[in-house]
Predict the structure of Carbohydrate ABC transporter permease.
Amino acid sequence: MKKIRISHILIYILLILLTLICVVPFYIMIINATHSTNELYTGLSVLPGSHLMENIKNMNERVNMLQGFFNSFLISVCSTALSIYFGTMTAYGLFEYRFKLRKLIYVVLMISLMVPGQLGIIGLFKLCNSLGLLNTYWPIILPSFANATTIFFVMQYLESSMSEELLDSARIDGAGEVRIFHSFVLPLSKPALSTMCIFNFVSYWNNFFTPMILLFDDDKFTVPLLINNMNSGMLQDLGAKYAAIAVSIVPIIVVYCFISKSLTKGMMAGAIKS
């Protein structure tokens, strides 16, 4: 019993340390957003300051953060919706149907997960230039049709949770494949889809590299690009920069709060296979 108690105490200590490691950077970021640049240069502070509104005002004077929020929200929501819908459709096709190229397609998807997307940026730039899509959101949103991470995750969930008997019963009742997908596969995959909604939204919201290469106009810049633009100039307003970073994570926190319960269920998907 003593050994079990000691192991439990060690586990709790480890969990507390991991929690602190995750929370402290966010706390320091928020605290820094309330201090002026001069105060930040003097050293680290753990108590909030009184310059939050001033920093937000300076941030709005340097960049149009409201427009950046709209741009990032538009790209993130559209990309997430497309990746979830078509990723689930692809995963269902690979899970349910047995055809000759099934294994080859699955191998290609796995390989694509290991190849950095930055390697194809030159080809993407030339393609967008030839199609006249540069400085638009289309080349940023459209690749979300083929999100290999979503396909892999949802396929693993379907293999562990989807009942073949249920799908066969629906076919016997006269349901077509499209109706089965919308009426059974999508609703029953909600935990996995909620998980991927979080990960995809965060990924698209924080995407810096692709918009930096393909977008040129300031009024089309996303939040990461606007924060990067605050590095320009001889005088660095650290208070305004920290305020911009703190504000930029608010949508992510809001999305997480709405989908947190389903996220937990989705992370446990496949842990127990009946």
Observations:
- Residues 270-274 have pLDDT under 50 and may be disordered.
